Amino acid sequence: MASPAQKRVNVVVSRLIPPVLLGVVIYASYAVTKPLCIDYLIHPLPSYNRGPRVGAGAAIIAIYYVLLIPMVVSYLQLYYQVMWNPGYLPLGEQKVADDENAKQLKRHRGKKRARKPDPEKTNQADADVERGLKSTAVGTAFQSDFGLESFYTRDVFVCQEDGRPHWCTTCCQYKTDRAHHCRELGRCVRKMDHFCPWVGGVVSETSFKFFIQFVAYTCIFCTFALIVSAYFTGEIRRQTGGVNPHWCVCIGLSGLFAFFAAGMTLSSVQMGIFNITTIENLNRRTAVWTLAIRVPEYLLDRLWAAESPWAPTYRMVSYPIQAPSSPTQPQTTNPSPGERHVFAILHTLPGENPFDLGSPLKNLQQVMGYTVFDWLLPIKHSPCADHSSMESHFALGPVVTRLRQEAGLAPPPENGAAVPRSPHSGQSHREKSPSEQ
Predict the structure, then answer these.
(1) Which sequence spans correspond to the domains of the chain?
(2) Residue ranges of region Disordered (predicted)?
(3) Within 116-203, where are the H helices?
């Protein structure tokens, strides 16, 4: 695990790399435009002893900058999202209070150092600090019920074995589906993919689309620069026996970045095809997802009816939590009418992804958008960044449909009832009983 010093170094390096990349692009543009196109093709220097090739030079300049524009625009959009809209989850109240206490403690210590310490009070002051730290640690470990409403008002959410959402002990907050804590930045991030020093921060649901566009455009741009530089370097070497140093540097840089960008493009597109993140891909073949799936109202009436013969084969959890026996055990008895939110706790099979929509195209559309312009232009956010649906935080696939049917939470298709709603339909989470349909 990285130390605090290493984390700070990673953040500093990630802030320094974007200006370096800007310098590389400026130098490559100079090397292609001036020494190659102008001094060699359009207006050849006397030392080259050859006629002008205006058409070739103009065509190379035009294609070069046409490819440069989408790469730069996508990077600027990506950088903006990473820096100012990274997709952080809000900090919990306990974490905010802890940070404020730490700042006050730091200011208090600074004032103490400015004055000559009193030997009789030094030990007492240190003891107060230790008690403050201990009380903070205890408060951080406790999982409050604040924020649960954003989970149990939906139909499905990712949970722990006890039915609660996953809890971040650092941010003191429940993590939404697919959120991950970034150690470098010390924050939980929605659908975090990876921490990328090349773009200055964390790539998440708000920036993953623009990251794919950037690395794809970079791969095309660098490949073109590599081909042009290599071709004319070979030509001038055959004719004069020498090489232009700017072209050689351009070959090295464009080849390195083209290879790197191609690998990142293929990897990112693969993540999009499977509808997973780089973090989720680490155990994709063995991961078991625990889901809290809403129990329809008509089943609840049958469940709690007097002398009901129907008994579920799965664990259930009821929200809102009332008088839990411990911070990690939700109340599972029947709440008052009108406030009943009951969920079945179900598990996927190893390697099953509940967010796989069953089609590579549908999965990619969740990241890139639904039109050709969405795929090509770095303007709109990914559809998966829209969490307005009351079904779940993210679109759900056939795995969840199967779990519902196997658990008896959805009417079977052979009875003539409708198959459960399509992913992210945005309809109400209340299921109708067969008699009402």
Answers:
(1) 4-87+205-279
(2) 100-128, 405-437
(3) 119-141, 149-152
In order along its 437 residues, the chain shows pLDDT tens digits of: 567 777 788 888 888 999 999 999 999 999 999 999 999 999 999 888 888 999 999 999 999 999 999 999 999 999 999 999 999 999 988 888 888 888 888 777 766 665 555 544 444 333 333 333 333 333 334 566 668 999 999 999 999 999 999 999 999 999 999 999 999 899 999 999 999 988 889 999 999 999 999 999 999 999 999 999 999 999 999 888 888 999 999 999 999 999 999 999 999 999 999 999 999 999 999 999 999 999 988 887 776 666 666 667 789 999 987 544 344 444 444 445 557 799 999 999 999 999 999 999 999 999 999 999 999 999 999 999 999 999 999 999 999 999 999 998 876 555 444 444 433 433 444 444 444 44
Do residues 338 and 366 touch, judged by C-beta distance below 8 A?
A: no
d(CA 141, CA 167): 10
299 contacts: CB under 8 Å, gap ≥ 6 = 310, 408, 409
Residue 279 is encoded by which pair of tokens? 């973090």
Q: What distance in Å separates the CA atoms of residue 182 and residue 170, rounded to the nearest whole number?
A: 10
Cα dist from 301 to 305, 310, 381, 417, whole Å: 6, 11, 42, 20
What whole-number distance in Å separates Cα of residue 136 and Cα of residue 305?
A: 45
With contact defined as beta carbons under 8 Å apart, do 190 and 89 qualify?
A: yes
Does residue 309 sit in helix, strand or coil? coil
Query: Could you give the CA distance from residue 301 to residue 330 in angstroms, rounded to a whole number?
Result: 21
**Residue reference for tokens 């969920």:** 343
pTM of the model: 0.82
Is 314:345 a contact under the CB 8 Å cutoff? yes
Q: Find where tokens 């008002």 sit.
A: 153
Q: Specify the long-range contacts of residues 142-147, CB closer than 8 Å, at least 24 apart.
A: 142/94, 142/327, 143/167, 143/174, 143/327, 143/328, 144/92, 144/93, 144/94, 144/172, 145/320, 145/321, 146/92, 146/93, 147/92, 147/173, 147/174
CA terminus-to-terminus distance, the chain: 55
